[in-house]
Amino acid sequence: MVALTVVLVLAAGFAVQHFWAGRTQSVRAPEVVRAAAQYGGGEPGAEAVAGASATDAPGAVGTAAAEIVVDVSGKVCEPGIHRLPAGSRVADALRVAGGVRPGTNTDGLNRARFLVDGEQVIVGGPIAAPGAAAGTGSGGAAVAGAAPAGPVSLNTATVDQLDTLPGVGPVLAQHIIDYRTQHGGFRSVDELREVNGIGDRRFADLRNLVQP
């Protein structure tokens, strides 16, 4: 009886151990798998990367703002073609062009105006008369401070008159007069290229605004 009792106790213990080891246990999913499940399941690593790419792509496109190209000329420190973000104003164009040169009259310049792609901003010169077109013209160019009403004579203009031309300041105006004095006057507008301080870009801005 004792032996039989021992055998039954051992058998009962083995049965309990076997049942306990085979019970159902709850398992917590790893963090990588749980993150991947948010993107629709599948292979954890691939889906996590794909989900991240899909999330980042729209943001990358949204942050790539469109650009506009404007031509800033006249009495600024760095005249020329400049690229600006869409929605920029005239004040932004002046900033990227190095700012307005000292002593320039900017009363007729609307610095708060929005820019459009392909327009030209000319700084300096006489203030446009009331009612004159300011802003975008038929060619898409905006003039801030209109050019002189008629061609300026290179042979008779004073320093002040030459100073009203876009891109010409007191120093360059004096160079023009010095050249005129040394060579007995201008015989053609093309001679303006030989004046110290006038390059191709500035000559292109001036050629239609002056005459011998």
What does it look like?
The chain has helices at residues 2-21, 31-37, 44-63, 90-96, 159-163, 170-182, 200-206; strands at residues 67-74, 80-85, 120-123, 152-153, 210-211. Among the domains are: 64-146; 150-212, DNA polymerase, domain 1 (Orthogonal Bundle). The protein is rod-shaped. Residues 39-64 and 127-147 have low confidence and may be disordered. The chain has 212 residues and is an alpha/beta fold.
List keywords for this structure.
single chain; 212 residues; alpha/beta; DNA polymerase, domain 1; three-stranded mixed beta sheet; two-stranded parallel ribbon; rod-shaped
Write the layout of secondary structure elements.
Layout: H1 2-21, H2 31-37, H3 44-63, E1 67-74, E2 80-85, H4 90-96, E3 120-123, E4 152-153, H5 159-163, H6 170-182, H7 200-206, E5 210-211
Parallel strand pairs: 1-3, 4-5
Antiparallel strand pairs: 1-2
Helix pairs in contact: 2-3
Low-confidence stretches: 39-64, 127-147
Strand content: 5-15%
| Sequence of strands across the biggest β-sheet | 2-1-3
Shape call: rod-shaped
- Oligomeric grouping of the chains: single chain
How many individual helices? 7
Task: Please provide the ordered H/E string of secondary-structure elements.
Answer: HHHEEHEEHHHE
Q: How many strand units?
A: 5
Distance between the termini: 138 Å
Structural class: alpha/beta
- Percentage of residues in helical conformation: 25-40%
Mean of all residue-level pLDDT scores:
73
How big is the Rg? Answer: 39 Å
Largest sheet: 3 strands, mixed
